[in-house]
Amino acid sequence: MQDLYVALALVLVIEGIMPFVSPEKWRVTVIMIAQQSDKVIRMIGLGAMLLGLLLVTLLRSGSAT
Q1: What is the pLDDT of residues 7-59, one digit of tens each?
Q2: Disulfide-capable partner of 18 in 9, 12, 26, 61 (CB 3.0 to 4.6 Å)?
C-alpha cells in the first residue's frame, strides 16, 4: 500500500512541474487539449496508461536498470 501512496505523490509532483515552471504555456496546452474531441482525449489517456503500465512492468521485473 505504501508503494501506491508513493506513486500518487509522484504523480502530484510531476503534474505540478509544468504549471510551476511555465504557467502560460501550461494554460495554452490545457486550452488546446480541452478543444480536442472526446475520442482524441480518450486515446491520449489510453496511450498514457499503457505506457505507464509498460514502464511499471519493466521496472518491477528488473529489465530496466
Answers
A1: 999 999 999 999 999 999 999 999 999 999 999 999 999 999 999 999 989 98
A2: 26
Residues 41/33, Cβ–Cβ less than 8 Å: yes
Amino acid present at 43: M
* Helices 2-21, 23-34: inter-axial angle, 10-degree rounding: 110
What are the b/e assignments for 22-51, b being 16+ CB within 10 Å?
A: eeeeeeeeeeeeeeeeeeeeeeeeeeeeee
The cell numbers describing 30, all together, are 490545457
Asked if residues 55 and 63 have their Cβ atoms less than 8 Å apart, the reply is no
